[in-house]
Design goal:
By secondary structure, the protein is mostly helical. The chain has one domain. Helices cover about 80% and strands about 0% of the residues. The chain is built from 8 helices and no strands. α5 runs antiparallel to α6.
Amino acid sequence: MLGLDPDSVINRIKESGNPVVLPDRRQSVMVGALGFAVVSLVVFGLWAIAGRWLTDRLGTLPFYLILAAGFMAGGPAAFGPILIGQNLRRFYFLFLGSFLGYAAIWIGCWMKWGQLGEWLATILGPGLMATLFVNAFGAQKRILLCAGGLVIGHTAGYFLGSLLFAWELLHNRFGMEVWGLFYGAGFGAGIGLALSECQAATRARLLAMSAKSSATQPAAGEDLED
């Protein structure tokens, strides 16, 4: 429906005739971690600066929704460099839906079960995101790798940041930002890995096409850039 499957992406690339960058797994993880960490620092900065004020006036749930909206607004652009082809607009809709589902699970579990809910949400939320990703990209066979990467990255980033924030020295506004840095880097790395796996078939087919073109037309310029 979103046109992120290999056939749709490759057809658009052929029609455009533009060079295509094919990021590998390491690049995808690094770009995802760095990009989403920046977004997370901004959103957690809102919590650090105005969290108490907004919660007192709006309530806990509306404030959580504001934070989720911040991630949904800025998150997709962080992964633009690792999307194969001109797919940022299409990915934007996928990210909105998947992060909204993740946020709904997290908020619901936290408000109902507290700290136990955090552990449950860190499995169910990223698991839902992985399911939506692989279906949108036509990469259902990669569900275990995508889900595993998302759950591990999210869990490591979120709970390591939480542990540091609980330390008396960091139980302040600066510690909130530290938590945001670890959360964003961990979750972003997991999303980057998931996107790399979801686009593996597209990447392999484009590399094969590039190799075939180079073999048959050695004098022509490269159509693809790895």
